[in-house]
Amino acid sequence: MKVFRVIKPGLFTTVQDRGRYGFMKYGVPISGAMDEFSFRAANTLVENDPDSACLEITLIGPEMEALSKTQIAITGGDCSPEVNGKPVSMWQTITLKKSDYLSFRKMQSGCRAYLSVKGGVDVPKILGSRSTYARGGFGGLDGRPLAKDDTIKMLPPKPSGNLLTLQSELIPCFSRELIIRVIMGPQTDLFTEQGVDTFLSSPYVVTIDSDRMGYRLEGLGVEHVGKSDIVSDALLPGAIQIPRNGKPIVIMKDAQTTGGYAKIAVVITPDIDLLGQARPNDKVRFTKVTLHAAQKQLVQYSKSMSSLKNIMIQTKS
Amino acid sequence: MQPHVRYMPFGDSALLVEFGNTVNTETNKRVLALSSIVETEHLEGVKEVVPTYRSFLVGYDPSRVSYERLVFLIREIEEKTLALNPEAVGRKLVVPVVYGGEYGPDLKHIAEIHNLKEQQVVRLHVEKEYRVYMIGFTAGFPYLGEVADEIATPRLETPRLKVPAGSVGIAEKQTGIYPYEAPGGWQIIGRTPLRLFDPSKQPPALLKAGDIVTFKQIAKDTFNNARESLHSGKAFT
């Protein structure tokens, strides 16, 4: 069912779900929402299955005309959404009528916002996922970001029409100074003691060369014991590679599946969401945690996502 | 005595099983022997198994299986596989290639720096059997090794912004095939009409780690005909 006509596509708007799992051995990246918490919240607000596809908006939002009556929700970075030129709230269910005009102002905080539609965005599943992998040219809308005059379709929605809001204390705030927790390894032994110390004690700045593939950081170089290059092995989102110049590269969702630079540490899963909201010039500091502490955090994070449904405030039904 | 296998955490939801730190057929065979069994065992909580040259990554859900438990289970399998003959894996595939000219713009350069004729480079490239050490870099890209020392060549100093789909390249002692158009720095010596990656197929990649590949020279005017007939799926011998 047609739900939107794209008038302006925005900077880089793609269809994303939780990602494509099980195909890394064929070189296929995981893709999926860069900020999974906001993505999950967007789906919960319109009572979708938690893995339903949404639109991921990057810094500049699209302009779209509603082609049918629907419910949507917008979460993530503060992008000041408007319907017919009037501000509407994020982190709550919004009802749209046919011909309503949805637009956004400049993103005030964060880097990515999620727009869910009731039922979920309808594009074919490729290798088990609707996520767009733009570099590979598949998934989402023909493997590319939204373009002018695209039609966005939705899957048949569930009949319920509750209006929900996320409690304000659960709404993440996206700071421009991030503390990112990491688990050291798998190749920390390829760095000098001083190199590890530099990595954990000095601030880094997100550069303009940062996207869904990876975040390149600027700051003090991290010293290797010998060469920076290793015989390539596997990568995952969160892995921090240090190339010859010593400047960290944090691997993100669309990254290649193997890489040939030594990895000093890996970002813990909940903090990958925070990085997914970082924009150029944001400051990042790394702090190490143990595997057990990180896994406790991860269990809590997973619980908070699966309990989202139960803690939404119902404003009307 | 087999060298020691290292187990280490890779973030909060993956672990790495490492067999060595060099490119080496024996190491890669051990990686594939163990990783393929770990994959077929469908261990509780395991989401991905990703083999590479010298190690494999296991992605898991820590709410379903602990790091320690998973290491224990894989070690158990490791002990059992010591008795296995790792030769058993691997299919054989012939990859047809048009060498040189517009299809292989760096063939001339490789011949010049090694003091060979272009056709000698081609002969050295088609003479050997190559092992698919791993799939990586981009979807479906096979890392094949190893080429004869006489034609091993470093990457281009400045990578190309666009390398066409099917391009066959050399980087040091490795040879590889670009599944689709991408930026890249490998020295391009030819192009195959085979399609190496098709996301609508299951599995999406033509090759997998452990396969054995040989190249076969074809004429330029058969490239398009070959493209059609080869897609009927008769590629494996």
Describe this structure in words.
The complex is a heterodimer of chains A (317) and B (237). Chain A has five helices and 22 strands. The radius of gyration of chain A is 20 Å and the shape is globular. In chain A, the strands form five sheets. Chain A has a seven-stranded mixed barrel with strand order 13-20-17-18-15-14-21. In chain A, strands 7-6-9-4-1-11 form a six-stranded antiparallel sheet, with no helix packed on it. By secondary structure, chain A is an alpha+beta fold. The two termini of chain A are 24 Å apart. Chain B is α+β, with helices and mostly antiparallel strands. A seven-stranded mixed barrel of chain B has the order 5-12-9-10-7-6-13. In chain B, helix 1 (25-40) crosses helix 2 and helix 3 packs across helix 4 (118-127). The longest helix of chain B is centred in the first third of the chain and has 16 residues, at 25-40. Chain B is elongated and about 55 Å long. The chains are: A alpha+beta (317), B alpha+beta (237). At the A-B interface, strand 16 and helix 4 of A face strand 2, strand 3 and strand 4 of B.
